[in-house]
Design goal:
With 469 residues, this protein is α+β, with helices and mostly antiparallel strands. Helices cover 69% and strands 8% of the residues. It has one domain: Up-down Bundle (Outer membrane efflux proteins (OEP)), CATH 1.20.1600.10. It is built from 13 helices and four strands. Strands 1-2-3-4 form a four-stranded antiparallel beta sheet. Strand 3 and strand 4 form a beta hairpin. Helix 12 runs antiparallel to helix 13. The chain is elongated and about 130 Å long. It starts with a helix and ends with a helix.
């Protein structure tokens, strides 16, 4: 009879040990979570073949002008911080596999001799409590694995949003540097003409000083714009995980055009609660702790419960067989502290989930307000300010051709027109960054603030404008 019981336990242990690793380490679920939110898959380099495929894809994408989508693809393939986050999947899955396996059985053999007497003891031990709680432990680790997949998916969305923002900032900084160079060239021509006229006695010292001051300010702003372009490009390079020859990628000359109209989203708060990964993760974490609390109560009084089969023999004596049970009695530790800790941890997780939901509601409202404001401002520059500056320049040119205005007035107007265009570029950049922020607020996690990405470049035209005319 005892042999049948041991055989049954061994069969259950064998079935429990059949938990294996998935072919992709859980990456399929991560891609399912991200694909519905950004239509791009992440790439985990788990072996030399994956690294070679990522390298080939990188060379192909860098062989053409880099778009925002391609920059995100490169980041998902090559960003080492993201690759480190992918490894969390493997660690969590290893915990799942380990939780689905029993501790190895034990076997002890004792051989004792006293004169002509020989005693032999054989004991086979198996962790019965581990076998009983195996389904609970496996389910708990599965929930933790799912939580890790959601966390990694949120990291993917965050990296994609950071890369997209960096791409918009880099292209805008490059475009602004080109326009600020035109401002400097116009100011330089005006300053040189003023110098010659002052030398001939046809220009006052005050007007000459004004032209020189404007040129000096324009030169400083151009230097700052060039540095902003370098900074933006290097930040994008870091996010894409590129180095060496790969850093010579080519950005487009201009930002994408504004959409015809702004997005209209119905119930923003409901959408955020339904789709944001950090909200889902906080709720899932609370559920996991609740399940862990049930396990803590089940094992609070019994920490070790092992069963063993013994078969002993002694010289001249009939062979002994039977079983042994080892149970640690709760004389000093009744498990109350363990259960109380689990309960407080669950309360903590519930409040964190509620806090995450409140933050999500507020952040998505703020992000949408910033998005609409940025769209309206960029549209205002595109449809009102830039066309108005163009009409003014056309009128100034007509007056100059009719000898009704001086060359300095013509150059000053050209400078103002370029400055207006540069401000329009900044407004266009801010719109695309605000849209990225809104998408992250709706789908991923806390998007941070808009000020983290822009600001310094936008201040350059105003400073140059205030230095002269």
């Amino acid at each position: 009879m005892i042999y049948k019981q041991i055989l049954t336990i061994m069969m259950l242990a064998l079935v429990a040990g059949c938990t294996t690793f998935s072919p992709d380490g859980g990456m399929h679920q991560v891609n399912q979570l991200t694909r519905s939110r950004m239509q791009q898959d992440a790439g985990w380099q788990r072996n030399p073949q994956d690294a070679q495929a990522a390298r080939a894809a990188t060379r192909e994408l860098l062989g053409q002008t880099l778009t925002a989508d391609n920059a995100v693809t490169l980041a998902l393939l090559n960003n080492r911080g993201l690759q480190a986050a992918y490894a969390d999947l493997g660690i969590a899955e290893a915990d799942v596999v380990q939780a689905g396996r029993l501790r190895n059985p034990g076997f002890s053999f004792t051989r004792l001799r006293r004169a002509d007497e020989l005693d032999i003891e054989r004991t086979f031990l198996i962790d019965v409590l581990g076998l009983v709680t195996l389904p609970l432990r496996s389910a708990l680790e599965q929930r933790r694995f799912a939580l890790t997949q959601g966390r990694v998916a949120a990291d993917v969305l965050q990296t994609a949003a950071d890369t997209r923002r960096a791409w918009y900032a880099a292209v805008a900084a490059q475009e602004s540097a080109v326009y600020m160079e035109q401002v400097k060239q116009a100011a330089e021509a005006s300053a040189e003409l003023a110098r010659r006229m002052a030398a001939a006695g046809n220009f006052s010292k005050l007007d000459h000083a004004r032209e020189q001051a404007f040129y000096a300010a324009a030169a400083a702003q151009w230097a700052r714009a060039r540095q902003n372009a370098v900074t933006g490009r290097e930040r994008l390079t870091r996010l894409m995980g590129l180095w060496g020859e790969d850093t010579r990628f080519q950005l487009p000359a201009r930002l994408p055009a504004l959409p015809r109209q702004a997005r209209e989203i119905g119930d923003l708060e409901a959408a955020a609660i339904r789709t944001r990964l950090d909200v889902q993760g906080a709720l899932q974490e609370a559920e996991n702790i609740a399940a862990s609390l049930g396990l803590s109560r089940a094992t609070g009084f019994i920490n070790v419960f092992e069963a063993g089969y013994q078969r002993n023999s002694a010289s001249g004596q009939p062979r002994q067989s039977g079983y042994e049970i080892e149970l640690r009695l709760p004389l000093f530790d009744w498990g109350g502290a363990k259960v109380a800790r689990a309960e407080y941890t669950y309360m903590q997780a519930v409040n964190r989930a509620a806090d995450t939901a409140v933050r999500a509601r507020s952040e998505v409202r703020e992000a949408y307000s910033a998005y609409r404001t940025a769209f309206d401002l960029a549209q205002h520059y595109r449809d009102e300010i830039v066309p108005l500056r163009k009409r003014i320049s056309e009128e100034v040119l007509l007056r100059y051709n009719g000898m009704l205005m001086s060359v300095f007035e013509l150059l000053a107007d050209a400078q103002q027109q370029v400055i207006a265009v540069a401000a329009s570029i900044d407004a266009q950049r801010d719109f695309w960054i605000a849209e990225t922020q809104l998408n992250l607020a709706l789908n991923g996690k806390s998007p941070g603030t808009l000020a983290a990405m822009g600001g310094s470049a936008a201040a350059a035209p105003d400073a140059a404008a205030g230095a002269g005319h």
